[in-house]
């Protein structure tokens, strides 16, 4: 068998409780989903505002397809850059308070393109040890010198920045950490970058739409602004659609247009998605009631799980990790919930560090208080 070694590797992952498998949804994204003809209450989506199946976005997508067709047909730099893409980029830049923005197909591609275009041989990238995999891959692809600092450890980062003698210095970090739900200390990071003449790339995939005034993201939440900040956010989570963007000074965006491989050498996303996202941004700006409801659900969940034998990790965001520790125990708990008609993902290494397997509970403004009560009752029953 030519692939026997691959099968042995997969079998080994299964024995460690690390084998991943996909589940097939029947119907749209929602807190109430159907998998294999069985209904579930789901707490495992990043659709934080419940917009993924919003009728206004569906209508905007349909109208956009009627106006612009289905596929872009070419890269942005050839003939694939639609007026819908252009309007969305201008709107996104204004939304997050930056001079310019650039659309990417995914957050993964945005991070790869930005870091690779801005840092290279002779430069240094400084990275939080709990950064998303896309940032980790990006810093390796850049071929810059890599210095990793302990999670949110500003003292260690300051020492590393002090030791860097030449070349560009780029600090990269999640703004909201996707598996822990905590926030990076962006004001302190910015202060260090100003002191050491470095740039700061903040990945706000899990903050935009949820944090800050009118959902404008983590920069708004902390009340900071600087030419040194290069801001990345995704459009398939709270925005409910697909894609990502980088917002920064015009010279940075022009550099990405010319040097970011994951932008230059790929077909543009369907322009109809840009039409849907323009509508999504309107709903986000008007979504204070959604964000207030979401904050109420977060409080309800944290209060309801206080004292449980599995501790909730410290997080004030929609990402609420329940720390289990053992891989098999996390899978068993997830399976216990599944048997009760509730889906919560068990997150295991290498996505998280060894010994920190967890249930990653994610809340949405589309959840009700009754939905959270049902989850709480199930977890307390399983704890007993």
In this structure, how is the largest beta sheet organized? 7 strands, mixed
Q: What is the 3D form? A: globular
Count of distinct structural domains: 2
- Structural class comes to alpha/beta
The CATH homologous superfamily of the largest domain is termed Type I PLP-dependent aspartate aminotransferase-like (Major domain)
Distance between the termini: 47 Å
Residue fraction in strands: 15-25%
Rg, alpha carbons: 21 Å
List the uncertain runs. Answer: none
As for the CATH topology of the largest domain, it is Aspartate Aminotransferase, domain 2
Count of helical segments? 15
Order of helices and strands: HEEHHHEHEHEHEHEHEEHHHHEHEEEH
Q: In CATH, what is the class of the largest domain? A: Alpha Beta
Beta strands, count: 13
Helix content: 40-55%
CATH architecture grouping of the largest domain: 3-Layer(aba) Sandwich
Main sheet strand line-up: 3-9-8-7-6-4-5
**Mean of residue pLDDT values:** 97
């Amino acid at each position: 068998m030519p692939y026997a070694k691959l099968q042995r590797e997969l079998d080994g992952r299964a024995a460690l409780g690390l084998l991943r498998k996909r589940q097939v949804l029947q119907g749209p994204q929602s807190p109430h989903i159907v998998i294999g003809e069985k209904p579930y209450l789901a707490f495992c989506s990043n659709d934080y505002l419940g917009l993924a199946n919003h009728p206004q976005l569906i209508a905007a997508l349909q109208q956009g397809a009627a106006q612009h067709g289905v596929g872009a047909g070419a890269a942005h730099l050839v003939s694939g850059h639609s007026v819908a893409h252009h309007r969305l980029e201008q709107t996104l830049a204004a939304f997050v308070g930056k001079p310019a923005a650039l659309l990417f197909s995914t957050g993964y591609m945005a991070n790869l393109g930005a870091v690779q275009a801005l840092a290279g041989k002779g430069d240094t990238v400084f990275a939080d040890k709990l950064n998303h995999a896309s940032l980790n891959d990006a810093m390796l692809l850049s071929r810059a010198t890599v210095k990793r600092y302990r999670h949110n450890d500003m003292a260690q980062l300051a020492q590393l920045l002090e030791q860097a003698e030449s070349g560009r210095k780029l600090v990269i970090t999640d703004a909201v950490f996707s598996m822990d739900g905590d926030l990076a200390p962006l004001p302190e990071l910015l202060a260090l970058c100003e002191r050491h003449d470095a740039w700061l790339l903040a990945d706000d995939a899990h903050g935009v739409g949820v944090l800050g005034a009118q959902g404008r993201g983590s920069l708004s939440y902390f009340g900071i602004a600087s030419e040194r900040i290069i801001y990345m956010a995704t459009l398939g989570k709270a925005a409910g659609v697909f894609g990502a963007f980088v917002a920064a000074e015009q010279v940075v965006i022009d550099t990405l247009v010319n040097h970011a491989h994951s932008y230059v050498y790929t077909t543009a996303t369907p322009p109809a998605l840009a039409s849907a996202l323009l509508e999504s941004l309107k709903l986000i700006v008007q979504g204070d009631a959604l964000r207030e409801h979401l904050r109420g659900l977060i409080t309800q969940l944290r209060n309801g799980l206080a004292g449980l034998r599995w501790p909730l990790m410290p997080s004030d965001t929609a990402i609420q990790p329940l720390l289990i520790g053992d891989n098999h125990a996390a899978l068993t708990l997830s399976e216990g919930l599944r048997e009760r008609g509730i889906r919560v993902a068990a997150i295991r290494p290498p996505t998280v560090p060894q010994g920190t397997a967890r249930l990653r509970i994610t809340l949405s403004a589309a959840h009700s208080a009754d939905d959270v009560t049902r989850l709480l009752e199930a977890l307390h029953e399983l704890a007993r």
